[in-house]
TrEMBL record:
<dbReference type="InterPro" id="IPR002912">
    <property type="entry name" value="ACT_dom"/>
</dbReference>
<dbReference type="InterPro" id="IPR008310">
    <property type="entry name" value="UPF0735_ACT_dom-cont"/>
</dbReference>
<protein>
    <recommendedName>
        <fullName>UPF0735 ACT domain-containing protein DesyoDRAFT_1053</fullName>
    </recommendedName>
</protein>
<comment type="similarity">
    <text>Belongs to the UPF0735 family.</text>
</comment>
<dbReference type="InterPro" id="IPR045865">
    <property type="entry name" value="ACT-like_dom_sf"/>
</dbReference>
<feature type="domain" description="ACT">
    <location>
        <begin position="72"/>
        <end position="147"/>
    </location>
</feature>
Length: 148
């Protein structure tokens, strides 16, 4: 680790301690206006105020951490006409700015594609972008491989 205060990791929720997950829930309740105060929110999720204050500045939803950034995704696409075009059209529909596209030669009916997308000005969150891409027929797998 470089020791910078802006270092981020993408970590599965399934391996995080309960206090960090509950901190994220508190922040979501407050952001959505479903809780009026921090006290109300921490009581609703069963978290102490001290734990909330300990973690609050280091816990962000993926879409918030990637706001105004570049995300790079890896996709495995079926080797069928139009699949990559549908992917690119969907990215454009949410106002994602495609910076780079790298596609390997299709092998065994699938092609590996990596796409770097600038998220500044996107009409939706990166989480919803990924979910929407996953619904496209011919997209077999999506993985975030980096963000800056």
């Amino acid at each position: 680790m470089s020791g910078k205060t802006n270092d981020f990791l993408i970590v599965s929720k399934s391996i995080l301690p309960e206090a960090i997950l509950k901190t994220a829930m508190v922040k979501e309740l407050l952001a959505k206006g479903d809780a009026d105060t921090i006290n109300d929110a921490v009581e609703r999720v069963g978290l102490s105020r001290s734990a909330y204050y300990k973690y609050k500045d280091g816990v962000f939803p993926f879409y918030e951490a990637s706001h105004e950034r570049i995300i790079t995704i890896s996709l495995i696409l079926e080797n069928k006409a139009g699949v990559l075009s549908h992917v690119l059209n969907f990215i454009a529909s949410v106002k994602g700015n495609v910076l780079t596209i790298n596609q390997g030669i299709p092998l065994q009916g699938v092609a590996n594609v990596s796409i770097s997308i600038e998220t500044v000005g996107m009409a939706d969150t990166p989480e919803n972008l990924l979910a929407g891409l996953g619904e496209i027929i011919g997209v077999r797998k999506i993985e975030v491989i980096g963000q800056t």
